[in-house]
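It is worth pausing here to work through a concrete case rather than discussing structure prediction in the abstract. The textbook approach is simple: state the sequence, then state the predicted structure, then interpret. We follow exactly that order.
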Amino acid sequence: MRVTARHTAVLASALAVGGCGFGGGGGATKAGGPSGPVTLQMASTDDLGSRTDGYARNFAARVQELSEGRLRIKLRPDAGKVGGDYELQLARTVTSGEFEMGIIPSHTWDLLGVTSLRALNAPFLITNQALLADVISSELGTTMLSGLDRAGLVGLALLPGPLVHPFGFDQPLLGAEDYRGKVVWGIESQTTEALWHALGARSVRGQALDRDLQRGLAFPFESGAEATVTANVTLYPQLDSLVIGARTYKRLDDHQRAILRQAAADTRALAIETIPNDALKAREFCAGAPGTLRGTVRASAAQVAGLEAAAAPVYTALERDPLTRSVIARIRARAPEVPAPTDPTPSCPAERMTPITGKASSALDGVYRFELTDPQIRTEAPDPEFVKEFHGIYTYTLSGGRYCYEQKMPDGRTYPNPNYTPGACGIYRLSGDRIMMSTRTGEPVTLRWSRATNGDLRLKVASSGAWGPALANLVAGEPWQRIGG
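Step two, the predicted structure:
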């Protein structure tokens, strides 16, 4: 959670307050009336400790403070189930009336038919935090939020997030031609989908973030991805919307509504004050670059102009909506009047990654298993943390050039390795007796292979890549027992 010291005490006290909500058709009670305090349940992120979670908690604390406890916000981080449509789930818990309020990513609304906020994700339009803060604090923010009435909601505030830049895995994403054929992981909205289509790319959602499967990310600098970021190309900003159901809002009295609006405005001010500085985050990103495959580059003026030209069809579609056309024009008019940050983002080029070579063969298709025990791991790396992270039973499924693996404890539970994402996948290629496998965070691994008569694989390390010598020697040290496929 990125907040200044002056807000620490407020955020620390911003705990979800107990009590019963009055969603699902219940009636609100008057603040201070005989029925006691009014409690509103708010759908919020389950990423506890994140920026958005901090803003939700600050809002709840501010409402309680302004109302002297007569109006309370109960945060519901359990509102959505983890999955590819998590953000849509959060939005629908509010539009359906299951919860009275929500803090919802603003890009989600165009998937539910709300078009008034689409200008916020118009490509290459809002390219610095000063302009973003100006837009959402002005009458433009109110205008865009007014379109939420189409979903039966009242918009209280827009909360700014970091700026999003292109991350290239196999090559930097500089000009429009670099996006053709790429698979990009980013936010889910009609506006961003239109951008990727215009650039000749396609988008995916979910946990499969391997560079060789996707080739690109649309992320802020706070991402830890090992990739090359085009620092001076801002695709769009991230934002959240603070909303309340229209029926709930009408049931509140004027004083309660004023409290919610003031708390929302205060939370927006906090968000603007504490939003991560893009240039500072870029410097931090570069500080972690030496010896890795992460770095930054800058597109030329001609490449930036080419990207903007390629995005013209996106604007043609957006501007068919009169309100969106007006908002885009007004943002463009405001941009020259808002002093842009003069602190430039640094350039720290990433090392070039070894390409995956060979054929996507099915010769090794099958399911294989091996185990790394504590004594085995200590022979290569006695560090207790290393032992803790990589102990377990590994199951690799190889299929036509794609692999997926699982790391389990002996009792079948997923092993608590922070470097492992359940269902992690990648690609592999065969060239003679060599198999080259992609990794999630760096150089590919190359192993020599031979097959035993029972189908087991015997491996020797040719190049340890991002695994490092210790892990590579362990993985190749025991036969991979063929158990299926």
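Step three, interpretation. Confidence is low (pLDDT under 50) at residues 1-33, 206-212. The chain is about 30% helix and 25% strand.
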